[in-house]
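Intended use. Records like the one below are meant for learning the mapping from a protein sequence to its folded structure. Do not use them to infer anything beyond what is encoded.
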Amino acid sequence: MPTWPEPPRLRSTLIASKLPVQHWPNHVGEPTLADAILDCLLHNVHWQPLKAAPMRKTQNPALDPS
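Structure written out for the chain above:
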């Protein structure tokens, strides 16, 4: 394990998921592995939540239960 800080990352990582981040550890299964993955991914995160309606509902109003 290095004792010096990591160099800044030169590239971005984009992850798109329908599953909220709070539920990711339940799907990974191994708590230690889930913590390690989330620590790496969420260290310098910039959130961009999407709040648009699903395209299926806008293209087919019969699918909208309201």
